[in-house]
């Protein structure tokens, strides 16, 4: 299982070498970036296909005395998302990013390394460290254009995410004080004997901290500003990976450390579902008023992440499968949408809804991809979004959250209205002659690849489901995870 | 009207913070009631076996560079990220001088203290596994040298002596060296960042060349932190 | 043994208060450093043992304080310092653009 640790250090090493190449050999940027991305793709796929049964890698060889990495199906699913998004986005940005190219790639690789660390680690403090790596580099990527809006968005983002980190750190320190260890499995065992009240308080600290990072309403205010003027390939990674990584970490902490029994007993599951419902309704309503496409997609991201939250907080096998599958699907769908917007922005700097009028006839294939992805994100058959929404609704009904299922249907109509608005504008004929810069194949291909995945995963959902079906086994009942992590 | 609004807002904030404080007081009260001082088997193991297992007398160093070395890699990455962000946000255009002219005493004292700072920093780094100190502390002391130069002689002089590109290179080499030293563990058939477990020769505890890879890891982190902090400081001061 | 914890709580709450109530961006950043210091103090506290020595075992000591929180505190200091540096850089940028550090005025300037 040497590969597990390479998943984290390869992006970091690439970033460090890029730092040297920025100073002395500017020319090797392209081979370095693409070569490392291709090797990384191979690594990710080989690690995530080898995830059953879960494997433990002990950094430093200390076993329970040190830091352990764990590859279980949930982590493998996340690595698969990185594998799907990373290479297309890197190829896209190689042409898209014009200024500060080196810095952009250094920070992107650092961010990916941080995300991989968050996904694989089984140590609470290590999780915090990689969380900081991720949020710091992600914040820098927001500011990279150095425009007024970008700097302001980055500052807001940094303030909110640091506030969240402090609560997470406080909870981590208290956890160490109470359990005397930072290994998640040992903490889970120690926490079984802890009084109910103390556990609820610790859980509240964790949930509040991560909710700030995820952007659940009313803690979402930073998010649309952070998306508004940032480079669009970064938006793909941000909505697809950074926010999801926070969701992932929260779920990991809640399900492994506290356990499903405590979650349902303390009412956390009901709170999570309720919070999710509120969040997506408000986010859909806010998205409806946006004129900037980036902001519209940002609000849509908040709503979609609320669906994921609902799925993961339902607390049944079906919910976990639906929620995790939606993490994958949303990353693909939102990635496609953002890349299409990126092409429009690249060719005629169109970022508002009214600017894209009539582009449907100028970019027939790209616009069709946009239509596919937006219908999919709304949740219409036969695309992949429909399947996961169906799974989440089914799970919510089964677990007795009937109102959540009902409101998801309402939310579908709400999101249909604003996506239809965009699509109709896209296909409205205009007299105005538009001058366009050719986006070229290297921008089109990644977009079309991600768009076609929307259809592929909609028609053959069994492809990813064979991996995702194994997730609840090690997450819902944490005893298996604990046994493997303890080396049994 | 706006004044009342502002008052209300302030009251609201204060109420929120007081609620938070009370909430935390409840936490402390509950923890205090629990009385579980026995649950420290991990640190007890480190204290009783740490010297034998890692070869480092300074247990904090052995935790930082051996048991939890992966955290150290993470935080080294954080500094590198911060340095990268700062050099990105700051335009390369013109550096500004500080307006103040100091008397000759300040200049002479600065010159005089630099060798001592260098010796102190290097000592802290190399004896990190034997005495209080280590890569981070030593790196911070080393970074004081360029910072002092910047404060007394101005950014331009400081950067003509220590080029920003050189500092960046040193920082990157430190980070890469840390990972390469970690990979030595993989090469010798153990795990990444293994030191005590990979048998790099703990040596005689208490000597300078002991504790396996820990001194070398200390050096890498030391030069990395020193260069990183110097970059961060100079970038912040350069901004007009 | 409770009073130090109360100090931690006071510092933490004061820091959070500074962050959410102050209009000046620099003061906000100072608030963050206060919160960070309170967390470092908490780390030192939970590792403390009465009459314990520092965890440097050049001799046999009876009671040695917990080394793990000290290592964690070092990590926290480094991360906090980096985050503060980035925040200050962004504040400087904002000041250069708008010529003010006041949140209300910034909002007005943006419209």
Automatic annotation (TrEMBL), chain A:
<feature type="transmembrane region" description="Helical">
    <location>
        <begin position="200"/>
        <end position="223"/>
    </location>
</feature>
<dbReference type="GO" id="GO:0015297">
    <property type="term" value="F:antiporter activity"/>
</dbReference>
<dbReference type="GO" id="GO:0005886">
    <property type="term" value="C:plasma membrane"/>
</dbReference>
<feature type="transmembrane region" description="Helical">
    <location>
        <begin position="441"/>
        <end position="460"/>
    </location>
</feature>
<feature type="transmembrane region" description="Helical">
    <location>
        <begin position="235"/>
        <end position="260"/>
    </location>
</feature>
<keyword id="KW-1133">Transmembrane helix</keyword>
<feature type="transmembrane region" description="Helical">
    <location>
        <begin position="296"/>
        <end position="315"/>
    </location>
</feature>
<dbReference type="GO" id="GO:0042773">
    <property type="term" value="P:ATP synthesis coupled electron transport"/>
</dbReference>
<dbReference type="InterPro" id="IPR001750">
    <property type="entry name" value="ND/Mrp_TM"/>
</dbReference>
<dbReference type="InterPro" id="IPR003918">
    <property type="entry name" value="NADH_UbQ_OxRdtase"/>
</dbReference>
<keyword id="KW-0813">Transport</keyword>
<feature type="transmembrane region" description="Helical">
    <location>
        <begin position="32"/>
        <end position="53"/>
    </location>
</feature>
<feature type="transmembrane region" description="Helical">
    <location>
        <begin position="6"/>
        <end position="25"/>
    </location>
</feature>
<feature type="domain" description="NADH:quinone oxidoreductase/Mrp antiporter transmembrane">
    <location>
        <begin position="123"/>
        <end position="415"/>
    </location>
</feature>
<keyword id="KW-1003">Cell membrane</keyword>
Automatic annotation (TrEMBL), chain B:
<dbReference type="Pfam" id="PF04039">
    <property type="entry name" value="MnhB"/>
</dbReference>
<feature type="domain" description="Na+/H+ antiporter MnhB subunit-related protein">
    <location>
        <begin position="107"/>
        <end position="229"/>
    </location>
</feature>
<feature type="transmembrane region" description="Helical">
    <location>
        <begin position="12"/>
        <end position="32"/>
    </location>
</feature>
<dbReference type="Pfam" id="PF20501">
    <property type="entry name" value="MbhE"/>
</dbReference>
<feature type="transmembrane region" description="Helical">
    <location>
        <begin position="214"/>
        <end position="237"/>
    </location>
</feature>
<keyword id="KW-0812">Transmembrane</keyword>
<keyword id="KW-1133">Transmembrane helix</keyword>
<feature type="domain" description="MrpA C-terminal/MbhE">
    <location>
        <begin position="14"/>
        <end position="88"/>
    </location>
</feature>
<dbReference type="InterPro" id="IPR007182">
    <property type="entry name" value="MnhB"/>
</dbReference>
<comment type="similarity">
    <text>Belongs to the CPA3 antiporters (TC 2.A.63) subunit B family.</text>
</comment>
<keyword id="KW-1003">Cell membrane</keyword>
<feature type="transmembrane region" description="Helical">
    <location>
        <begin position="73"/>
        <end position="92"/>
    </location>
</feature>
<feature type="transmembrane region" description="Helical">
    <location>
        <begin position="112"/>
        <end position="130"/>
    </location>
</feature>
<keyword id="KW-0472">Membrane</keyword>
<dbReference type="InterPro" id="IPR050622">
    <property type="entry name" value="CPA3_antiporter_subunitB"/>
</dbReference>
Automatic annotation (TrEMBL), chain C:
<keyword id="KW-0472">Membrane</keyword>
<feature type="transmembrane region" description="Helical">
    <location>
        <begin position="6"/>
        <end position="21"/>
    </location>
</feature>
<feature type="transmembrane region" description="Helical">
    <location>
        <begin position="28"/>
        <end position="48"/>
    </location>
</feature>
<keyword id="KW-1133">Transmembrane helix</keyword>
<feature type="transmembrane region" description="Helical">
    <location>
        <begin position="68"/>
        <end position="92"/>
    </location>
</feature>
<dbReference type="Pfam" id="PF00420">
    <property type="entry name" value="Oxidored_q2"/>
</dbReference>
<comment type="similarity">
    <text>Belongs to the CPA3 antiporters (TC 2.A.63) subunit C family.</text>
</comment>
<dbReference type="InterPro" id="IPR039428">
    <property type="entry name" value="NUOK/Mnh_C1-like"/>
</dbReference>
<protein>
    <submittedName>
        <fullName>Cation:proton antiporter</fullName>
    </submittedName>
</protein>
<dbReference type="InterPro" id="IPR050601">
    <property type="entry name" value="CPA3_antiporter_subunitC"/>
</dbReference>
<dbReference type="GO" id="GO:0005886">
    <property type="term" value="C:plasma membrane"/>
</dbReference>
<keyword id="KW-1003">Cell membrane</keyword>
<keyword id="KW-0812">Transmembrane</keyword>
């Amino acid at each position: 299982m040497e590969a597990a640790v390479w998943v984290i250090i390869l992006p970091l090493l690439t970033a460090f070498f890029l730092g040297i190449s920025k100073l002395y050999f500017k020319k090797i940027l392209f081979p370095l970036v693409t070569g490392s991305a291709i090797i990384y793709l191979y690594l990710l796929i080989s690690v995530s296909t080898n995830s059953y049964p879960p494997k433990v890698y002990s950094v430093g060889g200390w076993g329970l005395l040190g830091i352990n990495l764990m590859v279980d199906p949930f982590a493998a699913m996340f690595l698969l998302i990185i594998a799907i998004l990373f290479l297309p986005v890197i190829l896209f940005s190689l042409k898209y990013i014009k200024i500060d190219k080196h810095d952009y790639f250094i920070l992107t690789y650092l961010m990916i390394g941080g995300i991989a660390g968050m996904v694989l680690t089984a140590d609470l403090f290590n999780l915090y460290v990689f969380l900081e790596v991720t949020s710091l580099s992600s914040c820098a990527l927001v500011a990279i254009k150095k425009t007024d809006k970008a700097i302001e968005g980055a500052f807001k983002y940094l303030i909110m995410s640091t506030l969240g980190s402090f609560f997470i750190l406080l909870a981590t320190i208290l956890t160490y004080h109470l359990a005397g260890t930072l290994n998640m499995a040992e903490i889970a065992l120690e926490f079984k004997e802890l009084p109910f009240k103390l556990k609820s308080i610790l859980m509240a600290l964790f949930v509040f901290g991560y909710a700030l990072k995820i952007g659940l309403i009313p803690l979402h205010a930073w998010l649309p500003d952070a998306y508004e003027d940032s480079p669009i390939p970064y938006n793909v990674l941000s909505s697809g990976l950074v926010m999801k990584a926070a969701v992932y970490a929260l779920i990991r902490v809640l399900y492994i450390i506290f356990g499903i029994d405590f979650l349902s007993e303390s009412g956390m599951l009901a709170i999570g579902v309720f919070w999710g419902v509120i969040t997506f309704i408000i986010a859909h309503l806010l998205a409806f008023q946006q004129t900037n496409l980036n902001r519209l997609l940002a609000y849509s991201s908040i709503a979609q992440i609320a669906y994921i939250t609902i799925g993961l907080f339902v607390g049944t096998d079906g919910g976990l499968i639906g929620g995790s599958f939606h993490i994958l699907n949303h990353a693909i769908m939102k990635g496609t949408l953002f890349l299409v917007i990126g092409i429009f922005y690249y060719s005629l700097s169109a970022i508002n809804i009214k600017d894209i009028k009539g582009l449907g006839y100028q970019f027939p294939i790209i616009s069709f991809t946009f239509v596919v992805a937006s219908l999919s994100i709304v949740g219409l058959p036969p695309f992949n979004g429909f399947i996961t929404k169906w799974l989440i609704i089914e799970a919510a009904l089964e677990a007795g959250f009937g109102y959540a299922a009902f409101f998801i249907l309402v939310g579908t109509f709400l999101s249909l209205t604003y996506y239809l608005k965009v699509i109709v504008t896209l296909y409205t004929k205009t007299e105005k002659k538009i001058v366009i810069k050719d986006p070229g194949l290297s921008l089109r291909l990644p977009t079309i690849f991600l768009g076609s995945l929307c259809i592929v995963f909609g028609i053959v959902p069994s492809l990813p489901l064979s991996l995702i079906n194994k997730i609840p086994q090690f997450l819902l009942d944490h005893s298996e995870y604990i046994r493997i992590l303890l080396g049994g | 009207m706006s004044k009342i609004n502002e008052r209300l807002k302030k009251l609201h904030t204060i109420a929120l913070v007081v609620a938070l404080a009370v909430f935390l007081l409840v936490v402390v009260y509950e923890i205090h009631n629990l009385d579980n001082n026995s649950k420290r088997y991990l640190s007890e193991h480190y204290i009783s076996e740490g010297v034998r297992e890692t070869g480092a007398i300074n247990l904090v160093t052995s935790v930082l560079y051996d048991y939890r070395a992966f955290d150290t890699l993470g935080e080294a990455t954080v500094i590198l990220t911060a340095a990268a962000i700062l050099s990105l946000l700051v335009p390369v255009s013109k550096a500004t001088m500080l307006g103040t002219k100091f008397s000759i005493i300040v200049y002479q004292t600065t010159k005089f203290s630099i060798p001592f700072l260098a010796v102190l920093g290097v000592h802290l780094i190399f004896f990190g596994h034997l005495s209080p100190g280590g890569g981070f502390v030593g790196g911070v002391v080393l970074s004081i040298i360029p910072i002092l130069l910047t404060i007394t002689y101005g950014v331009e002089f400081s950067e003509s002596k220590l080029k920003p590109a050189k500092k960046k290179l040193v920082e990157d080499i430190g980070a890469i060296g840390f990972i390469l030293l970690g990979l030595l563990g993989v090469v010798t058939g153990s795990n990444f960042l293994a030191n005590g477990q990979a048998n790099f020769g703990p040596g005689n505890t208490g000597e300078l060349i002991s504790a396996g890879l820990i001194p070398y890891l200390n050096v890498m982190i030391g030069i990395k932190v020193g260069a990183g902090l110097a970059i961060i400081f100079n970038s912040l001061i350069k901004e007009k | 043994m409770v009073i130090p914890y109360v100090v931690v709580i006071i510092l933490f709450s004061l820091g959070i208060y500074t962050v959410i109530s102050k209009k000046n961006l620099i003061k906000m950043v100072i608030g963050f450093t206060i919160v960070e210091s309170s967390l470092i103090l908490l780390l030192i506290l939970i590792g403390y043992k009465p009459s314990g020595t520092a965890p440097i075992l050049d001799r046999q000591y009876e009671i040695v304080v917990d080394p793990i929180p000290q290592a964690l505190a070092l990590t926290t200091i480094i991360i906090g310092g980096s985050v503060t540096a980035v925040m200050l850089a962004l504040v400087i940028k904002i000041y250069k653009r708008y010529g003010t550090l006041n949140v209300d005025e910034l909002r007005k300037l943006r419209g």
